[in-house]
Amino acid sequence: MNDIDAWVWWLVAAAGLGIPLVVTAMPEFAMFAVGAVAAAGVAGFGAGIVVQVLVFVVVSVALIAVVRPIAARHRTQRPQLATGVDALKGKQAVVLERVDGSGGRIKLAGEVWSARSLDTDRAYEAGQEVDVVDIEGATAIVI
């Protein structure tokens, strides 16, 4: 045991911290693993055990204090890029067949969609531009 350098033990600890990271998906284990790699680095330069442990603790705590709040903020944000039917909301379309409260056809994003008017008393004639406010199934709701 004494023949193995301290930096090797720190690297073994870093790899050991990677196992619960993969199993539990808790990013804190990755931050501890980075702390262990930093401790392995100072051990490789010949620092004593007190300095190694201090580097491990400081790096791990600093990463948790800095990275966790940033990750939490990103986790609560909605994606900036809308895809699928969400991307069609707010787009303009051209009426192909009269659209009223009971139905009709529009051309939206190069495709023909069934549509109905949001206001059941309102009708849109062919050639008019309308705005898509929602998508219900395969029907665009327009104003």
From TrEMBL:
> Where in the cell?
Membrane
* Membrane topology listed for this record: Multi-pass membrane protein
- Domain of life, per UniProt, equals Bacteria
UniProt keyword annotations, A-Z: Membrane, Transmembrane, Transmembrane helix
Ranges annotated as spanning the membrane: 6-23, 53-71
- Ranges for the NfeD-like C-terminal domain? 85-142
Query: This chain belongs to which protein, by name?
Result: NfeD family protein
